[in-house]
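Exercise (ungraded).
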Amino acid sequence: MAKKLPPVDVVLVGFGWTGAIMAQELTEAGLQVLALERGGWRDTPTHFPTTVAPDELRFYWRHEMFQDTARETLTFRNNDSQTALPMRRWGSFLPGSGVGGSGVHWNGQTFRFLPSDFVAASHNTDRYGPLPEGMTVQDYGVTYDELETHFDRFEKLCGIGGKAGNLRGALQAGGNPFEGRRSDDYPNPPMEMTFAQKQFGMAARELGLNPFPAPSANMSRPYTNPLGVQLAPCTYCGFCEKYGCGNYSKAIPQTTILPVLMGKHNFTLKTHNEVLEITRDSSGRRATGVTHVDVHGEVFEQPAEIVILCAYPLQNARLMMLSGIGRTYDPRSGEGLVGKNYCYQVVSSVDVFYEDRYTNQFVGAGALGMVIDEYNGDNFDHAGLGFIGGGYLACWTTNARPIETHRTPEGTPEWGAGWKKAVKENFLKSTGVSTHGASMAYAQNRLDLDPTYTDVYGRPLLRMTYDFTPNDRAMTAYLTERATEIAKRMGGREIKVNAREGAYDSMPYQTTHNTGGTIMGSTPANSVVNRYLQSWDVPNLFVMGAGVFPQNAGYNPTGTVAALTYWAAEAIKSRYLPDPGPMVRA
Amino acid sequence: MRKSASFLVAGSALLGAVEAARANDFAAVERGRYLTQAGNCQGCHTPAGEEPFAGSRPLETPFGVIYTPNITFDTETGLGRWTKDDFWRAMHEGKAKDGSQLYPAFPYPHFTKMPREDVDAIYAYLATLEPVRKKRPENELPFPLNWRFTVKGWNMTFFEPGVFRPDPEKSQAWNRGAYLVEGPGHCSGCHTEKNLLGADKKGRHLAGGRLENWSAPDIRAGRHGGLEKWSEEEIVEFLRTGRNAHSAAFSIMSEVISYSTQHMAEADLKAIATYLKDLTGEERAAPRKPADAVMTAGAAIYLDNCTACHVSDGSGVPRFFPPLAGSGKVNNPDPTTVIRVLLEGARAVPTKTHPSPLTMPAFGWKLDDDEIAAVATYVRSSWGNSGGAVEADEVRKLRGLLAEGPP
Ligand SMILES: Cc1cc2nc3c(=O)[nH]c(=O)nc-3n(C[C@H](O)[C@H](O)[C@H](O)COP(=O)(O)OP(=O)(O)OC[C@H]3O[C@@H](n4cnc5c(N)ncnc54)[C@H](O)[C@@H]3O)c2cc1C
């Protein structure tokens, strides 16, 4: 028998980026908020101080920050003809565990989606005609304009450094001319650029493109956010992605919200407590709370008035399935919605090698880069191209790490003395142009529960069925060609094209931008949650995170994930609390 | 009708009197609360994470360990049976209810400067706190100090009871500042060097002290004082927010700021600044120049380990990571704090205005005694600093003391 605990107003499942934002917003509204986090407590000086932060073995190769696959992982297959097998070691993406979630070891590239991304289905149909067979792209049900102030709040919370391209409708030289209208500039200036970005900028301008500095959550100067929390200037040490920042220079929940939140009397955090299930009353229409298990295996029943899933898209979808809320999507019948429209990110790159110019890539930061947006979203005419959507092209200098980094030219042997020589010769003299492409939803890509493999508690693992789609392949080929054009003009000795071809491979790292599975939309017939991220089936259940994206855009997700979280929090405070119940009538 | 009307009038007059008395009470309690904060009573009377004011925090004195008493009004273990007069005698004369002498770890030599109405107000405030039953452990004092009457002799030599008397030559702000610093604030408890008997050393008033393996800096802010470079505004900022352009508070001062000064009225903080700005120090002889080899090693260690926050020229990131160039703590002739911060790290005090507990990591596990000494020497002898060299032996000794741990 599970021990029943005293009720709370709100229980948050997971305490990463979305959990921290929600907790801060709802405690401000006076609610009693409890966050349950499966991993441990983490803070900068204890867990990733400068003295240990850049430890490649510990943090990357031994995965100290990531979900423990020995306890729980997911199974993977490319398509229905295969049998999914458990991912026993993370590769393509790296879900976090512990306070701050993946928000601790993210890079900090903090974009806003384009206005047209939120209406991908209607916009593209209007312009290019019906979507191809099997493509299940749909509108978000919320618009860029509705989210604008929420984007702005997140940028100010994080101290994003960048250059506005569209300030209240007026185009700004040096910014992204394609971005949606902004109510305000970024709170901080862009980061300092290195030689590589200068070469990229020059090449892009020669081609008539508009390079702009990437919006960065790595601080370009000392910053105190609206909550009074302090972020220190980035030292360009190059240990952002896959690492915690020892210098308080990367916006993470710990450096933006937690110092204020943790002191509040109406907030409680329980670490090392994994949520097992969302419980419901006999009508099935009302969540009564959650059950969770501590490290000793003791199970608790936590009653709550509101349940909010903040457990990252993959876990959010799995918890819905394990709790039997909504029907799991079945591509054969087309019925069910939970697990539908799983999407990812389609990336490729072109390396540039210099003969006698030093790029010194070890002087880097997670979001240090120059970007062009001419080939993103619907910023260009797709007529005759055979795909919709696109992506940004960028020259990043995120890092060069002693173990991980080994860019080598075409024709280099894969190992041995020749490989070592090439690594040595090129370590300080290379850079690249990367493409960061959208991922459009197709009927066969999805998440469901694995029929065979279970987690440490004997519950089915999540199963991922995913491969690149015809749209993805045409898009990435196009983007890679554009990247090649730029790379060729960057003044290097030679280039090497790393196109994204063949089946999706779950091992090489690509991005931790898993989206879909709990998608949002306009009716209960096309979505799991409504435009306020409220479950259609269980109105006191809310689902945060990129799982609500009906399909993924050509940007990193977190700016939009955070804006949606603020948007949902606002709706809970101003509409749901005064009148609890469905905020959109079906 | 008339009758009842007049009755009503009388009734409300009566009510008014009661209310006024209550309001008076309220004013006294509020005043008491303010003074209790100004004196940071909570600091010593609360072990970390335990019930506020219920005592039992071990105070490490050079003579042994003294446990602070419970000052909630519990009848068995606290002040429950104390009268206002008992409390006044403790604060003013250093005598317990039973007439026995209190140890001067309780800063009655400072509290004696407080007038009766201030002391009564503190009593009124403490009486409003939820009483906590908590007995304190026996003090760990060696013979003959465990004989409380030895304190009598101490008192005859070092203690003069008497309420603060303003200096008519000085401004009102100066006098208020002097009262707060010397009276309730008892700053010299940490910031004045003690003689062998634990009393303030003559002529060293607020010129820096040493306690619990920390060196408290010189806080005189006039010419040649440790805080000479701090403006009045910067002193106020430090006490209000825990940070300013020169420094950040940590360790014991962080308690003072979080329980006490951050809650104080702006005018009182200004008054403290006015007073400190009027305290002058004395010129210091330049220390011996450290060996070149040590400076070279120190510079290399500094570059690898410290520049990310403190910047290669020691300028730091003001209000985030304290500058080392010109720092009072770094230039303190007593290097204890510098060595200790290198060994253990330090956490800037989170305050209402600056909630971030920005923290320097420990280097004790990463750098050996020679390396710590070299980098400390480098920092104390660069960018205009003149703190002087640190020897590996000093590092080794401090490591030993810290390894013994708190009592
Ligand atoms: C290496 C890396 C680099 C990235 N770089 C970028 C970038 O540059 N730009 C960008 O926009 N995005 C980036 N991201 C993505 C970004 O980190 C995520 O979008 C963001 O953290 C998502 O927030 P979330 O709250 O949904 O999930 P998370 O922040 O991951 O938080 C989820 C939390 O829920 C907890 N949890 C899960 N299941 C349970 C359960 N059953 N019970 C209790 N707790 C549970 C987890 O332990 C975790 O702490 C990156 C991610 C990674 C891993």
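Further reading is listed at the end of the chapter. For now, observe: The first helix of chain B runs from residue 2 to 38. Chain B has three domains: 25-158, 172-277, 292-404.
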